[in-house]
Write a structure and sequence with these properties.
5-stranded antiparallel sheet, 140 residues, 25% helix, elongated, Jelly Rolls
Length: 140
Amino acid sequence: MPQKIISLSTRGQGLYEFTEEVSAFVRESGAGEGLLTVFVRHTSCSLLIQENADPDVCTDLDAFFRRLVPPSSDPSMRWIVHTTEGPDDMPAHIKAALTQVSIGIPVSNGRLVLGRWQGIYLFEHRDRPHRREVLLHLGA
């Protein structure tokens, strides 16, 4: 069963599309049919399948999550205890808990079975740049 770890660099909070890297892995695997598992190995970012035709979708999603879970320095977040790594740390964990760290995508005829406007995104929840590891596992 083919497996690969890819490394993604982020520049801070936001959505980072990596559909092409995943598609290339599936093509190079030579697999015809199967299920691809995409898993991010971190607790302060997550994964999304989302529209990739209009960048405003990503802008709005990022803005929504920033409003939903503001930094711990915001007065509405005074209840947060875990602040050791900065005001964006615990909110990043909350955002990751509300989304997902693993996605299953069917593979058919050697290609990802994504919808026409769907892309695969790493959703970075921290303010600083990070290097994120994503595991790709293709099972029969």
